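Section: Multi-chain targets

For targets with more than one molecule, the full set of components is provided together so that the structure can be written out for the assembly as a whole rather than chain by chain. Components appear in the order listed by the source. The example entry contains three components.
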Amino acid sequence: MGVSKTLRRGILAAALSLAAALSSPSWAADSLTMWVRASGANAAQHLVDLWNSGHADKIALTVIPDNQVVSKLAIGVQSGDVPDVISFDLIYMPDFMRAGLLTDITDSMKGDPNFAKVAPAYAHLATYKDRLYGTGFTPDVSILIYNKDLFRKAGLDPDKAPTSLQQIHDDAKKIRALGPDIYGFYFSGSCPGCNIFTTSPMMVASGAKILPANGDEEPLAGTGVKEVLQLFRDMWSEGLIPKSAQTDNGANFAATFKTGKIGIQGSGGFIISDLKKDAPNLDFGLAFLPGVKEGQASAFVGGDVVAIPKGSKHSDIALAFIKWELTDEAQLEGLAKNNILPSRIDLAANKYFQADPRIVTTAKAIGIGYVPWVFHFNDMVNSDSSPWIQMIQTAVFDGKVDEAIAAAKAKMKEIADE
Amino acid sequence: MIATRRGAMGLLYAAPAVAFVAFFVVYPMLDLIRMSLTNASLLGGGEFIGMKNYVKAAGDATFWHALAFTAEYTLFITPILIGAGFLLALLAVAPPRIAKLTRAVVFMPVVIGLGSSSLLWVWLFDEQVGLINKLLQDLGLIGQPMVWFADATLGLWAVILSIVWKVVGYGMILLVAGIQSIGADIFEAAMLDGASYWQRVVRITLPLTVRTIALTTLVSAIGSMLAFDQFYIMTSGGPKSETFTSVYWIYQNSFIYFKQGYGATLSILLMAIIFIASTAQLLLMRRGAGT
Amino acid sequence: MSASPRSMHGAGPARLAPRLSGRGSLRPTLRRAFASPRLYLFSALCIVIMALMLFPIVMSLLASLKTSAEASAVPPHYFPSAISFENYARVFHYQAGLPTYLFNSLAVAFMTIALCLLLAVPAGYGLACFPVPAKEAIFLVLLLSLMAPYQALLTPLHRLFTSLGLANTYLGLAIVHTVLQLPFSVYLMRNSFEAVPKELAEAAVMDGAKSFQALWWIFLPASLPSLVTLTLFAFITSWNEFIAALIFMNRETGFTMPVMLVGVRQGHFGAVDWGAVQAGVIISILPCLLIYLLLQKYYVSGFLNGAIK
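Its structure, encoded as tokens over all components, is:
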């Protein structure tokens, strides 16, 4: 007893208790905890607020930086410090399911009528070995935006968005001719995520398959890859794209278009409310991302899924929240009312979106969109050193299109084999 | 008898620090070796895989490129830092009052965080809102704004400029101390011999501060070999992974790709290089302590 | 800068710390070499150098005082057309709010200071004043993290902290910062205690005073300047450290200032708020600059004594 008393007085104990007192707040016992990644925090907050207003079991949100979600959850599952429910970038679903970090919710969701109406991309991505581990939460989707004022000035029909790669090229040329600081096209040349979001759908629309689910599949298959890269290369060497595009790591993904000096750009559904707020005078149109042929179109279904981590202390309430999140009430009053897309495709055309047909376009894009089911997404695509971004940079800025594709294919195969 | 009792007392005083180092330095080092032999990942794994990670590292072109790039950065920046530091030190030891003020101003950025200074410089170099382009344009040196970080070499020099600004005062202050420790009588003698200022610098100052110069060089070089913040913030490793440094690539593997085992392997390789350099540094310091 | 480091650290051996004082014996010699026309040239050179060194900070300060719109103007303006604090207001309300991030940084820095003092003072005392067996070997072990850079240890430390529940806590990050700062601290304290006059120490032992009392009443007061230096360095290291904070503090509310600033720069929905970034830069460098300006002699003497970092 005497010894432990002295020990307790010891330096380390003092430091530890100080640390405990000052450390991040511990979870309150009577409420659910939910983690959300930073870029989904706004949408999640709307949903959680709505849930809390009508339920006895309250949910508290913790915001996790986007690139920390994976390590945070993996560590949490190992050490038992997990939230009761979590939402994260849907693209990590395969890695998480395989690593056994999530709870199987197949049996509870199977009979849910609302779940059947969720965009198919989500069900596809949340399934591993025929078991279901999550569903759509706050979606986003890529689309094409264009500046209608510039279209008018260039003598183009502002109600006719480009519907093929060739048209993008032609329109961009005409817009570029408007002035030395007016550019036809923009993309974030150093941003892997922006390009998988907005550039890959043009390839997919043209019939390409981008990422391999395993080492046996061929990555970057189909002529669409080359056709899109060649288009970007041509527009770059013709000066239709501003020089600053080359180093944009995503920081100016939206900002450049807001200046009103860009004709056409791939973007995301989030841009609508963003532009209305920051550039209220900019008249812009919205369309699907086109492919090489007229009529081809696709989209990248992004955004967040919701799932229950292994070790959740309130998995029953978490499940109730997930089921509630798919109801008309949550989808319409929680999301659509706040200009956020619902994940159920049957609610794409709802009363809140009627005022702005552009939002309906994005909601429909979710229905035609694709999402790659892959492991090692960070390695292959999302990191600053990925074969995906290297391919785009080598092809567009150095002009070595074939070489770039071949190198990226080899590297992606290598990663998929791991 | 008393000596051993007092020795034991001394050991007791050193014990907490030794325990701390054992727990948070030695143990992680051993764990690093163990991890480097596994496929440990944040997403599971952890099986023993022998030397596979080392074989992979040998063929990891990006790693070797990162290492070569870090060496290139170190080779470029170290002579600049030492050379400019020496010249500034010569200036800073001069008697006029303004010299001392200059010394204080040149040293000031040393206390600023590398993160903050990198955010400051990446803004100065920004192709749209950056003042460096504006300045160069106003001076008529360039027509169009330059996109500094679109080119690995240009980006490297932008980083080097920012780091020289930030740490040149460090070398200067060490060399000021070195120069001031030279006895005035030596200078007096040289002046009586009619040696000019620069002759005195070459014949007296330089040879008598050579140990300080060596130490400063080593400290700077080790710091440069471990560069991370400035590249993470200013170049993000781009374009095309050409400006990844060794530490950055280790970070990328361990915490972005979650390949902790492989990251451990790369850490060991880096540590081996640093170990050699810092042993030399300690030897130099101990020799200095003995005088 | 009037006191020489020698007197600041007791009367001990000035290892790498010769006179920095302008009143050193060099001065008359050099004074003779400075004729007046050369003085003007010299002053002009000094002014140019100072202008170059101050340019980035002054420009950052000016940018932080622009209006939000003017701070993102393309092309940029050198000077604000009107002074505005809206950039500061936006940084203040960034995500969890500036007070949270300042508190995080301060909490980690103070724990680092506490750990460094609690470990380095006894260790320096033990090694300096006692006939410890294998003294130099122990000293080298304490300097080990110099040879094994902490950047390379982040992966296993991360694993260790996860199993100890230290990941994402202030104490965990403070431990990493202590790993980084301990060699300098031990080195400094050992030198400083060795410099305390032997007669003083021996008198204490003769009096039968216990060793801890000797430490408390004799050695610590005699080494006060070194303690100040140690504290300053621990603070500045911890306040500025980036990569460990980036890896270990992974809840948004746990960020320290540098990590939060990078977050500001990454922007929200694809737009960089440069005005806010520069306001953040100014806030983050302010404590360091204040410490430097107020306690310059301790800071510079630390560099000269340690030359470690």
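Chain B has one domain: 59-290.
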